[in-house]
Design goal:
mainly alpha, two-stranded antiparallel ribbon, 13 helices
Length: about 350
């Protein structure tokens, strides 16, 4: 089928964005429910199980609650910044979805129609992801400052310091993959992991240290336990979103879980082969299920860590980032460069 017509191409792009965003938002909604149920299981409780079968409609009940709650705005806040901050955080989280390859090219049987399971593809997609996700901290920092609340300000400052500390390690942890792949195109990086019957993942080809550094840095980037210092309830009430309510709070809430999902997709794409796995060459649609299965594994890991680990002190968090993760990331670059130089893997 000819998709060269600009109107048809634009329509298909819009349809792809619409489907991807809605699927991601549904997954995010049910990740929240899964987290509440898994944490309840870990803590010997039941969790939400009244709205719908087994609590299946709880995300929609929460959405209605956010919509109908009173929207309280602090008198002394800087209003424009106060309003725009949650939009910045959510937009930065959602914008990266368009470059992740969810699966290989799918061919519809008995037709000449085929389409890739990626919305858009370009040569520097990895740089785009790193650049856009780093903007999200502006939303958090601006929210903390504009609320005119000392707890919010402390949460915003902590988030900015935490991002500077761990963004460096996260970026350096990916250099090993870039050296081996020789490209910044996420689709090409996934294709290069199709060796060994679909198991030529970079984590199995010399990037285990890089994967561990990335995983820890990504948890810190998303402000999740044990790195949830910007919203430490025991110290800062709710941190940067203390003064937020109703839908503006919901946007921050959604941004956190979308960020969890996107960093899980990046880890899957760069280290775990993306859609690659046994049988994908014969049945390409399997790739989509492999990809989502790996992402769900990371989401479960997030939840498991929240129910298991205590929070760091802030000085421990900073020391860990600068004195351990950063040298480890540099060591991984040295090892990866050596392997690439001698074509060992």
């Amino acid at each position: 089928m000819n998709f060269d017509n600009p109107l048809i191409h634009a329509g298909l792009q819009f349809l792809g964005i619409f489907i991807a965003f809605n699927v991601v938002l549904m997954i995010v909604a049910y990740t929240v429910l899964a987290e509440r149920r898994v944490l309840a299981f870990i803590q010997g409780r039941v969790g939400p199980n009244r709205v719908g079968f087994g609590g299946s409609l709880q995300p929609f009940a929460d959405l209605l609650k956010f919509i109908f709650k009173e929207d309280i705005i602090p008198d002394k806040s800087t209003r424009f910044i106060y309003f725009i901050a949650p939009i910045i955080a959510t937009a930065a989280a959602l914008m990266t979805i368009i470059v992740y390859p969810f699966g290989p090219v799918i061919h519809i049987p008995f037709t000449d129609i085929s389409f890739p399971l990626v919305i858009t593809r370009f040569d520097v997609a990895l740089l785009y992801v790193l650049g856009v996700t780093s903007v999200g901290v502006y939303g958090i920092a601006l929210a903390g400052w504009s609320s005119n609340n000392k707890y919010s300000l402390m949460g915003g400052l902590r988030s900015a310091a935490q991002l500077i500390s761990y963004e460096l390690s996260l970026g350096l942890s990916l250099v090993g993959v870039i050296l081996q792949a020789g490209t910044l195109d996420l689709y090409s990086i996934v294709e290069q992991q199709g060796k060994w019957g679909g198991l030529g993942w970079f984590i199995l080809r010399g990037q285990f240290i890089g994967f561990i550094v990335y995983l820890i840095s990504a948890i810190a980037e998303t402000n999740r336990v044990p790195f949830d210092l910007p919203e430490a309830e025991t110290e800062l009430v709710a941190g940067f979103h203390t003064e937020y309510s109703a839908m503006k709070f919901a946007l921050f809430f959604m941004a956190e879980y979308v960020n969890m999902f996107t960093v899980s997709m990046l880890a899957t794409t760069l280290f775990l082969g993306g859609w690659n796995g046994p049988g994908v060459a014969q049945f390409p649609i399997l790739g989509l299920f492999y990809f989502l299965g790996k992402v769900f594994f990371f989401l479960f890991l997030y939840i498991w860590l929240r129910g298991t680990l205590p929070r760091f002190r802030f000085d421990q968090l900073m020391n860990f980032g600068w004195k351990f993760l950063l040298p480890l990331a540099i060591l991984n670059i040295i090892i990866s460069a050596t392997l690439a130089l001698f074509n060992i893997i």
